[in-house]
Design goal:
InterPro entries: Homeodomain-like_sf, HTH-type_TetR-like_transc_reg, HTH_TetR, Tet_transcr_reg_TetR-rel_C_sf. The chain is mostly helical. Helices cover about 80% and strands about 0% of the residues.
């Protein structure tokens, strides 16, 4: 293995471990020393990833959403049919985000750079849903709908799901809430 290939793999492994730590426990209460100890690395190793704890949290949040997007798209890619693709997409998003602890979501919401990344990724997910709806309309599987409105509705619910509002009001866990959202959305736009 070439040195740069090893360094890239090691960097990815560190980010994966960092993301897993943050998802499980949140990040606001952790110092760089705590993080280094938990990842069994030095603080200087962490500084190769980012220049400060704040930059490390931001970079880890980007890594989480990049990794999750790859997983979601891998689940959707083999599916045919617009309805099934929307259900698969929203279910996969729910599964990926269900690994985030309440503490992580609280910390993310309280830290503007990470919250901005979350909000940007929610907009990206809404755009992806809009594209899937457009595919279904073109294929005749869905009635002609205002796809941007349907995507915006989806994004609004995604935010409520992630902020815990849906769980509080309905008792549904995130994965079940995403399945219900997919069912309502696809039933509402079916041809």
């Amino acid at each position: 293995m070439a040195p740069t290939e090893f360094a890239t793999r090691r960097r990815t492994e560190l980010f994966d471990a960092l993301v897993d730590l943050f998802l499980a426990e949140g990040f606001a209460h952790l110092t760089l020393g705590d993080i280094a100890a938990r990842l069994r690395c030095s603080k200087s190793t962490l500084y190769t990833l980012a220049g400060s704890k704040e930059q490390l949290v931001r970079a880890a949040t980007v890594h989480f959403f990049r990794r999750s997007t790859e997983q979601v798209e891998a689940r959707v890619r083999p599916i045919t049919g617009a309805r099934q693709r929307i259900v698969a997409y929203l279910s996969a998003v729910g599964a990926e985000l269900s690994t985030a602890s309440d503490q992580f979501m609280t910390d993310l919401d309280a830290f503007p750079p990470a919250r901005e990344i979350y909000e940007r990724n929610t907009r990206i997910a809404a755009d992806r849903v809009r594209d899937l709806i457009d595919e279904g309309v073109t294929a005749g599987e869905f009635r002609s709908v205002h796809a941007t409105f349907a995507a915006d509705l989806t994004a609004t619910m995604m935010v409520r799901i992630q902020q815990g509002g849906v769980r509080t009001r309905t008792g549904l866990d995130d994965a079940d809430a995403y399945r219900e959202l997919a069912a309502l959305l696809t039933a509402g736009i079916s041809a």
